[in-house]
Design brief:
Organism (chain B): Nonomuraea phyllanthi
Largest sheet of chain B: 6 strands, mixed
Number of helices of chain A: 9
Structural class of chain B: alpha/beta
Keywords (chain A): ATP-binding, Cell membrane, Membrane, Nucleotide-binding, Translocase, Transport
CATH superfamily of the largest domain in chain A: P-loop containing nucleotide triphosphate hydrolases
Protein name (chain B): Extracellular solute-binding protein
Protein name (chain A): ATP-binding cassette domain-containing protein
Radius of gyration of chain A: 25 Å
CATH topology of the largest domain in chain B: D-Maltodextrin-Binding Protein, domain 2
Oligomer: heterotrimer
Distance between the termini of chain A: 51 Å
Largest interface: B-C, 65 and 73 residues
Number of strands of chain A: 21
CATH class of the largest domain in chain A: Alpha Beta
Number of domains of chain B: 2
Strand content of chain A: 35-45%
Keywords (chain B): Signal
CATH architecture of the largest domain in chain B: 3-Layer(aba) Sandwich
Chains: A alpha+beta (about 375), B alpha/beta (about 350), C mainly alpha (about 575)
Shape of chain A: globular
Shape of chain B: elongated
Number of helices of chain B: 12
Number of strands of chain B: 15
Distance between the termini of chain B: 64 Å
């Protein structure tokens, strides 16, 4: 992997972002002939050796954004830079075709060419690039390295149609790695294999990315995958980036109800904002005032919502001390392995709570959430 | 390696594309100018031999066309190529090629139809009389000359009746015999809608027997065939006893292979009249003129009309007793004929 | 605006030029012929339309044509789809036999097929009738079958239409996810219900393409109705058009073209419906992931189904060829076959005929060259121009597809006017035939290549682009090899129809460029059925030797895991 190591960490990497998007917008025409934005003015930077995950439900524009970086889609507005080089600029009419952007991409369907052997599939980026193909032995050596890296050196002579989904995945990964590009794009590459294989590949992919040091933009709708892989996550909604930050920040301090609901499970309690000082906020709810961390954009008197994660609630026992407590009715408890999931009703608000097993006893229980585990957000 | 293969393949293709076509007459090597030729003919022969080649379109059957081509080629040492066409295909093709400015044929030898004077009028052909053909019209009877159309009838193909001898068709001698009720359903009618060349024939029938003949023929429930060739084959197979109008060369061809087919020539007849047409922009104009000279000569015309079924203007004995020329047969338009025969 | 930002690549430029050239090749010669009757003295003159409406029995003509083309089209759709389904999905398939033999009837040029069937099915002396009458204990001298009839005509049309459906639907079925059918079986539907409710809807785009070709070729068939229809009193448009063009001089081109406009209108409607269908169901049904389904076990139906296939094959390919062999050995069409008098006279005459030899070589070479050029061009056009989905793409598609709906006689005359003289000087050469053949067969070529292009998932080409390959390289290394099975199948269709072409050759072939179709016409006009039979059989043998191995290879390759596409 010597060649890759050297090439994937260019010297100026420390200062130049691997990808810079500036006001990228892409419209599409709906069936009723009206225009709608698939990508609506996205600007962000991807640092060298960073793994940025674009997370969102299907239709949020994440794949369109990724394809715009690859050059497979033409945005209608904005600028795209890769490694400091402008590859797209709507204002200047500049659009570098995908084959000259010097990046690699792994597709959701693997997109292996069925008429080529594994070796030829992996060698393809090496022999197709502009600026001369490497000597034959070098191609062989680099393909071999790449296949070894993904753990399938023995499959070089096989054809894609003769392999399992997991193996095909590894071939696709080897093909993305072989050219040693500083930027690799991933379009939901793990969505087609079963859970076990997916988890293992995810870990391997992460290890590889850390080791080879390439920058990656990774599209997924799976929040667990996003959490595990990402250096930073960009949560997308309707063509815009709703929140951009490290996984922990996204999880613990979601900026909006949408992000909170999309990343992990969020219990919500509606109410009216009584006070908000930027640090703390108090929400008036059906269970009385609830105190928690204040999210951005809170206004006194406006509708708000209190949000807490199932693992942060406490349940059962005598009436607890402290501010955030209320009575709830236990509907059902389910054993989920690492924890027990309880479904509860409090008034007409349902919530979920995880405990480590100690039974609450009885239908009516006390429920509480610590103030630094409760987040108050605008409704 | 690959590039070698490629160039070899290209060369192969080119060679095949150059491969020339059909019906070429053999060149009898080094034929000399006949000693008795007039000075004008001598000049024409020399000019034609310089051109060395002749291409013509023929309506007369393939074996006839081949026979005259070979004879002409042997006599003058000029390479002859021809293709055989039906009269309507010939008109279509000759017209299109003439209009494109590059006629492939130096002349056609085809049926006299309205196309012939039209071609002259459009300047695609030249009048034989204006073509400096030596000795023209060389003793051809006046009745066969068509000075307005600038040509002359060099062959007549009288129309008759083809019969199946096993089905008692031998009993038929003349056109009215066909109307005998016993032939009901056993008559093959060659579809008159396929070519204008059939119109004079039906005019002859109307002239001889009145329109009533056509309505009575319709009552005989004839089988309609797409052309004389399939009609005569059906006849041979026994689908019917009579083909009307029949073509002698086709009937004789089948008879010679053992088919139970005969040909009857009623005394009253007409038929395709074959005329030459010289292309105005011919690639080999002198060879074409010499060919016309040959076809109108005693020798050439005899060769052209060697087989039974064609009449020579120079030998009236080869014609039916009461032959009527096409030009004297008009009055009943094709639509009327079709309607009387029950064809739409 | 942005769409035009990216500089055109050389590949795009070449592809666009190619498409435009093909469009021009189709439109320009035609314009020379078609515009004239509608323009007199610099003014548009609609007299031909008036004359067309005044054609005798116009309604009968259109009605008869619609019944024959529609009836045979529907029958061909049913038979072709059933054959394709049995061969692709059930255990009744019989390897090579069911793979390629449905195409054999197609190898016989239509004029020979029509003659073959009139030899077999004429009321009195048809070989088949002579065989059946004693066999069924029927007396008399007529029947039981009559090919000169409505059902006879529709039957022969159908035989020539089935191969198109078979090929296109087979390709569609190969590409459709068999899991949907397995799901249907699991849900309790029987094999035939599954076929009707799941398999056929899944290949709707293929059926649409097949229907378009049905209409297109159905209206175009000329030799078959010319030989079989008059005797049955059936009036067919293609025959009427040729009659208008060739009955007398000058040809009634205006009326002929106006009548052809009816055809064009119908083709346009079907074309529009098909494009809508393609667009609406591009993502539905077509998958391809997952293993190939195990062939469906037909159980007690297997025997009868196989028997029906064999019977169909015998009926459609062995019988007419047999009729032609017999007539060729007898020397003429004899009502009573005298086995002792059979001889090889016609065969030796044919083999010794230099004109026929040259014609055969020319036709095979032209077939191969034109089919190759045509399919490659169609592939480029399909991938580049038509996939763009823009107005220009549609326009080019229309320019390529519609001119050949006119009578080939009109088109051929156009080619003479356009290319025979200055500046091209192609008259009497094989080049003019080549141009005409390619242009006339583009509809079949683009239909086949569209289907083939549809089987290549867009991600496969995206992956190549991202891997650093330009458009040209992507086309060469990825798209073309993946389209190969479909393109080869289309190649075979083109090769056969071009090698046996009669319509354009009647005007364009000559002394310098003799082809088999023209030779057949010459022999037909001479009334020599024996030689016609011999030439047709020779041609069929020659084309089979080329087409059957190629089709077989394409189908095997198409079915192998190597060419499975993933979506």
């Amino acid at each position: 992997m010597r060649a890759m190591d050297v090439e994937t960490v260019p010297e100026r990497a420390a200062t130049t972002p691997a990808v810079r998007l500036d006001g990228v917008r892409k419209d599409f025409r709906r069936a009723d002939r009206t225009l709608a934005a698939a990508v609506d003015g996205v600007s962000l930077d991807v640092a060298p050796a960073e793994l940025l995950v674009l997370l969102g439900p299907s239709g949020c524009g994440k794949t369109t954004l990724l394809r715009s970086v690859a050059g497979l889609e033409q945005p209608d507005e904005g600028r795209v830079e890769i490694g400091g080089r402008v590859v797209f600029d709507a204002a200047r009419g500049l659009d570098v075709p995908p084959e000259r952007r010097g990046l690699s991409m792994m597709f959701q369907s693997y997109a292996l060419w069925p008429h080529m052997s594994v070796f030829d599939n992996v060698a393809y980026p090496l022999v197709s690039r502009r600026g001369g193909r490497p000597a034959k032995d070098e191609v062989g050596a680099r393909v071999e390295q790449a296949l070894e890296l993904v753990g399938i050196p023995e499959l070089a002579g096989r054809y894609p149609g003769e392999m399992s989904g997991g193996q095909q995945q590894r071939v696709a990964l080897a093909r993305a790695l072989v050219a040693g590009d500083g930027l690799i794009l991933f379009d939901e590459p793990l969505s087609n294999v079963d859970a076990k294989v997916r988890e293992r590949l995810r870990a391997e992919l992460l290890a590889m990315q850390r080791r080879l040091g390439f920058a990656a933009v990774y599209v997924t709708h799976d929040q667990t995958e996003a959490m595990e892989l990402a250096t930073r996550i960009a949560v997308m909604r309707a063509g815009r980036v709703e929140q951009l930050g490290p996984p922990r920040e996204i999880y613990d301090r979601p900026a909006t109800r949408y992000v909170a609901g999309f990343v992990g499970i969020a219990n919500e309690i509606p109410g009216e904002v009584m006070e908000a000082d930027g640090e703390r906020a108090v929400l008036r709810t059906a269970y009385g005032p609830l105190t928690g961390l204040a999210g951005p954009g809170l206004e006194q008197g406006a509708d708000g919502v209190a949000i807490w994660r199932p693992e942060h609630g406490r349940m059962g026992g005598p009436e607890p001390d402290g501010p955030n407590r209320w009575r709830a009715r236990l509907r059902i408890s389910m054993f989920a392995g690492p924890h027990i999931e309880h479904h509860l009703d409090a008034g007409d608000v349902a919530c979920r709570l995880w405990s480590d097993g100690s039974d609450a006893g009885g239908d009516e229980v006390w429920l509480s959430v610590a103030p630094d585990r409760l987040l108050v957000l605008p409704a | 390696m690959i590039s070698q293969l490629r160039s070899a393949a290209a060369a192969g293709c080119a060679a095949l594309l150059l491969a020339s076509g059909c019906g070429s007459g053999d060149t009898g090597g080094g034929a000399a100018v006949p000693a008795d030729a007039s000075p004008a003919l001598r000049t024409l022969i020399e000019a034609a031999q310089k051109e060395g080649e002749l291409v013509w379109y023929s309506v007369p059957a393939e074996n006839i066309a081949k026979a005259v081509s070979d004879d002409f080629a042997g006599k003058y040492g000029i390479k002859v190529k021809f293709i055989r066409l039906t009269s309507s295909d010939l008109a279509q093709r000759f017209a299109a090629e003439a209009e494109s400015g590059k006629p492939a044929a130096d002349l056609f030898v085809g049926s006299y139809t309205p196309f012939v004077p039209q071609a002259l009028e459009k300047g695609w052909t030249v009048k034989l009389a204006d073509a400096n053909i030596p000795d023209y019209p060389a003793g051809f009877p006046d009745t066969y000359l068509l000075p307005d159309a600038g040509t002359a009838v060099i062959q007549i193909q009288p129309t008759g009746i083809a019969v199946n001898t096993r089905q008692g068709g031998g009993a038929i001698k003349d056109w009215p015999d066909i109307l005998d009720p016993k032939w009901k359903g056993k008559i093959i009618l060659v579809d008159p809608r396929t070519s204008a060349a059939y119109t004079p024939f039906w005019n002859l029938i109307v002239k001889e027997y009145g329109e009533e003949y056509l309505t009575r023929l319709k009552a005989q429930n004839p089988i309609v065939a797409a052309g004389a060739a399939p009609a005569t084959q059906q006849l041979a197979a026994g689908e019917a006893a009579i083909v009307m109008p029949g073509v002698q060369s086709i009937a004789d061809g089948l008879k010679s292979k053992g088919a139970p087919v005969g040909y009857v020539q009623p005394p009253a007849s007409t038929g395709p009249e074959i005329v030459p047409g010289l292309a105005a922009k011919a690639a080999h104009p002198n060879a074409a003129r010499l060919f016309v000279h040959y076809l109108m000569s005693k020798e050439g015309n005899k060769k052209l009309n060697a087989l039974p079924g064609s009449g020579s203007p120079l030998d009236p004995a080869t014609l039916p007793a009461r032959y009527t020329f096409n030009k004297d047969l008009s009055g009943t338009p094709a639509e009327r004929i079709n309607a009387l025969l029950g064809l739409t | 605006m942005i769409a035009r930002l990216r500089a055109l690549t050389p590949f795009q430029v070449a592809g666009t030029l190619l498409a435009l050239a093909l469009g021009a090749l189709a439109v320009y010669p035609l314009a020379l012929v078609v515009i004239r009757p509608f323009v007199t003295g610099g003014r548009i003159d609609l007299a031909p339309i008036r004359d067309t409406l005044a054609q005798p029995d116009l309604a009968t003509l259109l009605w008869h044509t619609a019944v024959v083309v529609g009836g045979s089209g529907l029958a061909a759709m049913a038979i072709g789809s059933a054959l394709a389904w049995v061969n692709e999905r059930t255990d009744a398939r019989m390897g090579l036999l069911t793979d390629v033999v449905p195409l054999v009837p197609f190898l016989l040029p239509p004029i020979a097929g029509a003659i073959g069937w009139s030899l077999l099915g004429s009321e009195r002396s048809g070989y088949l009738n002579q065989l059946l009458r004693p066999l069924l204990g029927l007396g008399g001298t007529q029947g039981p079958i009559d090919v000169h009839s409505w059902y006879g005509l529709i039957f022969v049309y159908t035989i020539y239409q089935v191969p198109y459906v078979f090929m296109i639907v087979s390709a569609g079925l190969r590409n459709a996810d068999a899991a949907m059918e397995e799901q249907s079986r699991v849900s309790g539907a029987g094999p035939f219900r599954t076929l009707r409710r799941v398999s056929l809807p899944a290949v709707r785009p293929s059926l649409g393409a097949a229907a378009l070709l049905m209409v297109w070729t159905g209206f175009g068939l000329f030799s078959i109705p010319a030989i079989l229809a008059p005797q049955a009193g059936i009036d067919i448009l293609s025959v009427r058009v040729v009659r208008l063009l060739s009955f007398t001089y000058p040809p009634e081109t205006g009326v002929a073209v106006s009548l052809n406009l009816v055809v064009m209108l119908v083709v346009t409607l079907v074309w529009y419906a098909q494009t809508r269908l393609l667009r609406s169901s591009r993502t539905a049904g077509l998958g391809g992931k997952g293993a190939r389904a195990r062939p469906l076990r037909l159980g007690r139906w297997r025997g009868p189904v196989r028997a029906a296939i064999v019977a169909y094959l015998a009926l459609t390919s062995v019988l007419p060829l047999g009729g032609l062999v017999l007539v060729s050995l007898t020397g003429f069409w004899s009502g009573t076959v005298d086995w002792s008098r059979l001889n090889l006279d016609a065969v030796t005459r044919t083999l010794a005929d230099t004109a026929t030899q040259e014609a055969l070589v020319n036709s095979l070479v032209l077939g191969a060259v034109c089919a190759t050029a045509g399919m490659l061009a169609a592939a480029v056009v399909s991938v580049l121009v038509r996939r763009s989905g823009r107005g220009t793409g549609m326009l080019v598609d229309a320019a390529i597809k519609f001119p050949p709906t006119l009578s080939h006689l009109v088109v051929a005359v156009g080619f003479v006017l356009a290319f025979s003289g200055a500046p091209f000087q192609l008259g009497g050469t094989l080049w003019i035939l080549m141009l005409a053949y390619v242009s006339l067969h583009m509809p079949q070529a683009t239909t086949a290549s569209d289907a083939a292009a549809g089987q290549v998932g867009p991600e496969l080409t995206d992956a190549s682009r991202v891997s650093g390959a330009g458009q040209a390289r992507t086309f060469r290394r990825i798209t073309l090899p993946l389209m190969a099975p479909g393109l080869l199948a289309g190649w075979a269709l083109l090769f056969v129809t071009i090698a046996g072409d009669i319509s354009a050759s009647a005007i364009l072939a000559g002394t310098g460029n003799e082809v088999v179709g023209f030779r057949i016409l010459e022999v037909f006009a001479n009334g020599d059925y024996a030689m016609l039979g011999a030439i047709s059989i020779l041609l069929t043998l020659a084309t089979s030797l080329v087409v059957l191995p190629i089709t077989w290879y394409a189908r095997r390759r198409g079915a192998s895991p190597l060419s499975r596409t993933h979506f």
